[in-house]
Specification:
The protein has 12 helices and 12 strands. It has a 10-stranded mixed beta sheet with strand order 4-3-2-1-5-6-7-12-10-11, with helices on both faces. α1 packs parallel to α11, α5 crosses α7 and α9 packs antiparallel against α10. Bound molecules: beta-D-ribofuranose and calcium ion. The site of calcium ion has 8 residues, from loops. The site of calcium ion (CA) has 8 residues, from loops.
């Protein structure tokens, strides 16, 4: 089994990513850390605890991370994910308590199993930047760091050019790009190909009234309404589950190395990933750092994996 640590900001697709990880026999989920993002930190932590209890997995510890970005003003995305971050789902008050501090646990998990653990980050990168600042080199003890974030050739989703996670803490992403960890970016260029239609969710869950089916129906409602109203698509994009899927099966995506950086300060462009696409003959002349980016995805195989494991048999 592949040991995995999930760092989440607990919007709807973060919850689906956790469920996918828990339903995957290839994955050993060591723990979950929370970060501000789609919702404030306290709500993100509560959501993570509730989703684990929904899945009857209170054996998995939840650790609390950063409540604000390194430098920029705090932003959230309640308009997309609903007031609690989980659409209109109403889960019972969690009985579990957080198990401690995210940074301490990340250090212990990586030092305990050097070269083995895959870290999957599906929110702003603040926790990862802080742990690397505190202990330089620690993230290179990970087997891989999979980051859902950024938009390369694709348009943004929070601003015209920026994806939410890179926009919410561009300084953290910049730091990780610069220090050169073994990171793969999974940008909107890939995740915008992974649209799950509302009618597929309805059809797959039809006739079911178990807790998981009710949760998926209610949690996805707000984001589906948002996407329908703003983008004319009656469904949701499976951004964060894509990162988990890549830890399960690396052959699902094809990646390319680009020399890139992220804009940290621009009034219109903060959070924009800037790829140096100039036709330079010498790569050393490019601006930025070489970063592995998932650019192609086997849509059909991903969708099969996700629907089978999260929505169940037809
Ligand atoms: C990312 O932003 C959040 O809204 C989603 O959970 C995902 O991590 C997509 O831009
Ligand atoms: Ca997220």
């Amino acid at each position: 089994m592949q040991p995995v640590f999930l760092d989440v900001d607990m919007g709807v697709d973060d919850a689906l990513a956790i469920i996918l990880a828990l339903q995957s026999p290839e994955v050993e989920l060591l723990g979950i850390s929370t970060v501000f993002g789609n919702v404030p930190l306290g709500q993100a932590t509560r959501n993570a605890l509730q989703v684990l209890e929904l899945m009857e997995r209170d054996d998995i510890p939840v650790y609390v991370g950063a409540d604000e970005p390194l430098v920029r003003q705090l932003v959230h995305a309640e308009a997309v994910h609903g007031k609690t971050g989980l659409g209109v789902a109403e889960l019972p008050e969690p009985q579990m308590l957080p198990a401690g501090n995210a940074l301490d646990f990340l250090v212990a998990a990586l030092e305990g199993r050097p070269g083995e653990v895959i870290i999957i980050a599906t929110g702003p990168l603040t926790n990862l930047a802080l742990v690397e600042q505190q202990q330089p080199g620690i993230l290179n003890q990970a087997r891989r760091v999979l980051v859902m974030g950024g938009a390369l050739a694709e348009a943004g989703n929070i601003t015209p050019v920026s994806e939410f996670n890179s926009f919410a803490d561009p300084h953290a992403l910049h730091y990780l790009i610069k220090v050169g960890i073994n990171m793969t970016l999974i940008p909107l260029d890939v995740t915008h190909r992974l649209g799950l239609a509302a009618e597929v969710i309805e059809a797959r869950l039809s006739g079911r009234d178990d807790a998981l089916a009710c949760f998926v129906r209610d949690a996805t409602r707000t984001v589906i309404d948002f996407e329908r109203e703003h983008y004319g698509f009656a469904g949701l994009h499976l951004h964060d589950p894509a990162a988990v899927a890549l830890a399960i099966d690396a052959s699902l995506c094809q990646s390319e190395t680009y020399v890139l950086d992220v804009e940290t300060t621009g009034e219109l462009t903060a959070g924009q990933v800037v790829v140096d696409r100039r036709p330079l003959s010498r790569d050393e002349e490019r601006e930025g750092y070489p970063i592995d980016c998932a650019m192609g995805v086997d849509v059909e195989r991903f969708m099969q994996l996700f629907t089978h494991r999260v929505l169940g048999e037809v």
